[in-house]
Design brief:
The chain is α/β, with parallel strands linked by helices and 242 residues long. It is built from nine helices and seven strands. The protein has a single domain, classed as 3-Layer(aba) Sandwich (Rossmann fold). A seven-stranded mixed beta sheet has the order 3-2-1-4-5-7-6, with helices on both faces.
């Protein structure tokens, strides 16, 4: 299903390096292949995401940035902004919200993709909750209403309306994207995060088995990524239908 219509620019707010590839890598590849501009905002460095004792924070900080650059390149993403917050330390506060509002006003995305902060029945990393919540607030009302963060206006920016947010990892998705043609691209991007994924890839039997798992779907179904849509465009459509 084509959920993106006439949009030209998409912002992806990912809590850690690897979350965007795992959550919506196939959709991102589909967007870039259609000529859409995709901007990554990587909130944290992922510097505490190592399970092996020989992975220091300094090592992870550098390694995961390299892996994110490689993964994004595989998906066709050219513009990556690393905010540099420490893993596990995202807060619903002025520095993070201001950084998101600034980049929304700078790049003017039509839609924004990020993690669903409202999961109920399964554990979710705290950074994922904060990233989703602060993204929602940054989109509305902060990025739109110019008197929030007036220092951005002094820098020559203006308020910007993001039409919709699409939350990945939702327990109640209402929108699905067919990624049959980009699933291998997604798998390759996920596998670029070797510091996080190599042990798991080895456990399932290597690269080919990993890709097979990602392709496995129910009979007569298609390989898809699900999102929960939230935003003005959808609400206006629902209003018109009623």
């Amino acid at each position: 299903m084509d959920i993106f219509g006439e949009i030209e620019r998409v912002m992806v707010v990912t809590p850690h390096p690897d979350d965007a590839e795992i959550g919506c890598g196939g959709t991102i590849a589909k967007l870039t292949s259609a000529g859409k501009e995709v901007i990554y905002i990587v909130a944290t460095s992922g510097d505490r995401g190592g399970r092996d004792t020989d992975m220091s924070q300094e090592y992870l900080n550098n390694k995961r940035k390299e892996e994110q650059e490689e993964a994004a390149s595989i998906l066709g993403v050219k513009n990556i902004i690393h905010l540099g917050f420490s893993d596990g330390n995202l807060e619903d506060d002025h520095p993070f919200r201001s950084a998101l509002v600034y980049n929304i006003r700078l790049y003017k995305p039509d839609i924004l993709l990020t993690t669903d902060p409202f999961r109920k029945s399964f554990y979710i990393h705290r950074d994922h909750r904060i990233a989703g919540l602060v993204s929602l607030d940054a989109v509305f009302p902060y990025a739109r209403d110019r008197l929030h963060y007036p220092e951005h206006i002094e820098d020559g920016l203006s308020g910007h309306n993001v039409e919709e947010i699409y939350f990945w990892g939702s327990e109640e998705p209402d929108t699905f994207v067919d990624i049959t043609e980009t699933v291998e691209q997604k798998a390759n991007a996920v596998m670029a995060h070797r510091s996080q994924m190599q042990d798991w890839i080895d456990r399932v039997g290597g690269r080919e088995k990993f890709i097979e798992r990602m392709k496995k779907v129910k009979p007569d179904d298609f390989i898809k990524e699900g999102f929960r849509c939230y935003g003005m465009r959808k609400m206006m459509k629902t209003h018109d239908e009623n």
